[in-house]
Amino acid sequence: MNALFGRSLTRSFVRQQTRTGSARNFTNTKQYDAIVLNAYTDAGNITLPATNAISATTRATILEQLTASKFSKQGDVRMLYNIGGVKQVAIVGLGKKSGEDQAKIQDAVRTAAATGVRALQGQGAKYIGVDVSVDAHGASEGASLAQFSFDKLKVEKARRKEIVVGPFSESSVEDITWESGQIYGASQNLARMLMTSPANLMTPKLFSDEVAYLLAGLENTDVLVHDEEWAARNNMNAFLSVSKGSQEPLRFLEIHYKGGKESDPTHALVGKGVTFDAGGISLKPSNNMALMKGDMGGAATVAGALYGIIKLGLPVNVVAVTPLCENMPSGDATKPGDVVKAMNGKSIEVLDTDAEGRLILADALYYVTSKYKPSSVIDLATLTGAMDVALGEVFAGVFTNSDDLWKKLDKAGQTVSDPFWRMPLNAGYLKEMQTSLVADLNNLGKGRSGGACSAAAFLKEFVNGLETPVESPGPRDTTEVVETTTNDSIAWAHIDIAGVMDSQSTHGYHIKGMSGRPTRALIEYIKSVSN
């Protein structure tokens, strides 16, 4: 029953995105029952940038109404009715013109489109035209992101009615610009859907089924789903240790997209996929534990980004892996003080079973970097509460060994207004993890004090070629150790998305609840390296 129920979520998602994406490009605005218009408010003057889409008489009426209503700043919304043959028109302020800063222009349009679509949908509009005269991609993104709602589990009368949204403009705008915005928006909505799904309907198996179903048949794409036996054969004992407390079987999802030439470099994405995190034996407080269904946010954003990368047909090779499991307490669960040996042969003393994300990522990072030797690897994880304390829900924190990779990520985040902030990656944060009397490392460090930084330092030890050699006072049994090869050229970044995991309120294109961030920034980054 749960499998069928879970699969229906994907089918519904695909159907909704297809309906939205197939909206016709109307040139006659009367075919819409509602329209979102942009308006600049600069030095007291109100201008409508859609100059070719509105008659002079209708334009004069709109400007007169806006002036009378004291329409004056960015984010202002005015609803007009039966204007120019259209039942409802939402005019949204873009503020002052931003000059040549295309990212600011696009974000203003993205926000305005989302605000307008949501206002009209609340008024019962079914066919909405969105002003694309300033930036078609941003308008399409905002319109798509504004429509997200996870209400498929509610009775039908309580669900939001589906709408069709299309570009409103008589100017010559390439369709791919509107369509690319829809793909970016749909990709983040996919990540939102995966993160928002209740944990009983998004187990490791169901997550794998959902993503495999969604990507099935897409060009140049292979999806591999590995089970516990496979993980054991590959000596992924850190990953296995986290899953031991749950009755739900683990999965290791591996996706290959071969959009580039065979000789082109491969870029790797790794996502933490704890589909529910109770903390294991180190049980979390019950307050807000329900939010821990979103602890697979790293895996969800990787899946969403892959969907967008593939749909855009980017000429690049990407391998993505997501270790999926639950972290639960039981008689079989890993105990504080237990020692496990990771895939690269390093032993780990588990001081805190709630510091589980770094354990499953340790094996995933070593697997993907040792087997595929990518030119870059980025892992994403809702990893530490310390990151939420440090940056809140504005920035995702980035730890990286590469200035060039940081510059590309920073630019990608700024381009799509999903920003990153660089954090320190320093060996000093690893020292506390090297003090175990019984293992090479422990998994805790100083806990909350510098916790995000120590977690990043821990993960670096499992990126093949970047790890610190272990000095052992005595002979070591190397029969289970997978030999490492030096790969100093690999560029690695760890992105802690704990702070941006969910939005506390609805504003613009942000919807209260699980955010699906930074899916669009990942797509933009891969787009930049594909060029």
Any descriptors?
alpha/beta; Aminopeptidase; nine-stranded mixed beta sheet; 35% helix; hydrolase; single chain
Residues in helix, %: 25-40%
Give the count of helical stretches: 14
Shape: elongated
CATH fold category name of the largest domain: Aminopeptidase
The tally of domains stands at 2
The counted number of beta strands is 20
N/C terminus separation: 45 Å
- CATH architecture term of the largest domain: 3-Layer(aba) Sandwich
Strand content: 15-25%
Class by SSE composition:
alpha/beta
Family: Belongs to the peptidase M17 family.
Domain Peptidase M17 leucyl aminopeptidase N-terminal: 49-157
Keywords: Aminopeptidase, Hydrolase, Protease
Domain Cytosol aminopeptidase: 189-523
Structure commentary:
By secondary structure, the chain is of the alpha/beta class. 35% of the residues lie in helices and 20% in strands. The strands form four sheets. Strands 7, 8, 9, 10, 11, 14, 15, 16 and 18 form a nine-stranded mixed beta sheet that branches. Strand 10, helix 9 and strand 11 (317-327) form a beta-alpha-beta unit. Helix 9 (297-312) packs across helix 14 (519-530). The radius of gyration is 24 Å and the shape is elongated. It starts with a helix and ends with a helix.
In short:
With 531 residues, the chain is of the alpha/beta class. Helix content is 35%, strand content 20%. Helix 5 (175-196) runs antiparallel to helix 9.
